[in-house]
Design brief:
Layout (H helix, E strand, L loop, with lengths): L5 H14 L4 E5 L2 H12 L3 E9 L3 E8 L1 E2 L2 E2 L4 E3 L8 E2 L13 E6 L2 E4 H6 L4 E7 L1
Antiparallel strand pairs: 1-3, 2-3, 4-5, 6-10, 7-10, 8-9, 8-10
């Protein structure tokens, strides 16, 4: 299956796994996906991530989903940039999520980072998604 928007696919797979109350999921690996997963683990939305090789041919990431009691670590995700409409913004105009209870993922010239880090480094870029 050809995926035209890797970030959106990855975020929706994780969200659907949370809705299905899964403990672990396997997603296709890519460098940019690995960076997004690192951010989600660091911010506390995922328990862990392990790089594995499946059938000695291709790499996958096994993600451990995190729950707080019976509640998923993230309940909602909003994809902002889409293949047909990319949304770019300056560092001082990056939107905040739900009174700062979530994060916005931004693709900057220095790589993927959270909205807080992008504001701190004064880096604007493409708004990928919001998670809360």
């Amino acid at each position: 299956m050809v995926v035209t928007d890797y970030f959106a696919d990855l975020i929706i797979r994780i969200k659907n796994a949370y809705l299905a109350r899964k403990r672990n999921i396997i997603v296709p690996w890519s460098k940019k996906g690995e960076k997004l997963i690192e951010i989600l683990v660091k911010e506390g939305y995922l328990k862990n991530a392990k790089l594995k090789t499946q059938d000695s041919k291709f790499k996958v990431l096994e993600l451990g989903l995190k729950y707080e009691g019976k509640e998923p670590a993230f309940k909602e995700a909003k994809i902002i940039s889409k293949p047909g409409l990319r949304i770019y913004t300056k560092a001082n105009q990056i939107p905040r999520v739900k009174e700062s209870k979530g994060i916005t993922i931004v693709s900057t010239p220095k790589g993927l980072m959270t909205d807080k880090q992008a504001r701190k480094d004064n880096q604007g870029g493409e708004l990928i998604c919001q998670i809360w």
